[in-house]
Specification:
This protein is mainly α and about 160 residues long. It has 2 domains: about 35 residues, no CATH class; about 120 residues, no CATH class. About 45% of the residues lie in helices and about 10% in strands. A two-stranded antiparallel ribbon has the order 1-2. A hairpin with an 8-residue loop joins strand 1 and strand 2. Helix 5 crosses helix 6 and helix 6 packs across helix 8. The radius of gyration is 19 Å and the shape is globular.
């Protein structure tokens, strides 16, 4: 019998785009625990988030004519957070017309640490509006995870240096 080697990344990509029946087949072949990993196990870095969304790269040193050069780091951090949050939410998008749907975001305390931020949990938000923050999560666990795992990127986004 011949052996076929399959790269785990390719197996995960196939699983992600498969229909229900094909997912069951792949789970039987490779094991459910390998294919249906928790998103927090897969996204540890900005590069992981890009890979999850099949984004090759983003422009470095973004420059905008209306922004002071010291704002460029914050603008780039915002773009990174959009990608990270989109990947962690796995396709979920907030429904700002649904006041029963909770939206979560990391809560930072800049006074405890003396400098920068420390993530001290998450905040829940429910609102009736036609627009809202792109930087929210579908669960409190994801909000807390992102606040801790990507603390430096949040710090670059939220602070003026």
């Amino acid at each position: 019998m011949e052996t076929v080697n399959i790269n785990k990344e390719n197996a995960l990509k196939a699983y992600k785009s498969a229909d229900k029946k094909t997912k069951e087949l792949l789970e039987n072949l490779f094991g459910k625990e390998i294919l249906s990993q928790n998103i927090m196990d897969r996204i540890k870095t900005f590069e992981d988030a890009c890979n999850e969304l099949e984004i090759k790269s983003i422009s470095k040193n973004i420059s905008f004519g209306f922004a002071d050069s010291k704002d460029n780091e914050s603008i780039e951090a915002y773009a990174k957070l959009c990608i990270i949050i989109r990947s962690l939410n796995e396709g979920w998008e907030p429904d700002w017309t649904n006041s029963n749907e909770y939206k979560y975001y990391p809560w930072f305390d800049s006074y405890k640490s003396g400098f920068g931020f420390s993530c001290s949990g998450y905040g829940g938000w429910s609102a009736i509006t036609a627009c809202g923050s792109r930087l929210c999560f579908k669960s409190p666990e994801l909000a807390e995870y992102a606040g801790k795992q990507f603390l430096e990127i949040y710090n670059q986004f939220l602070t003026i240096k």
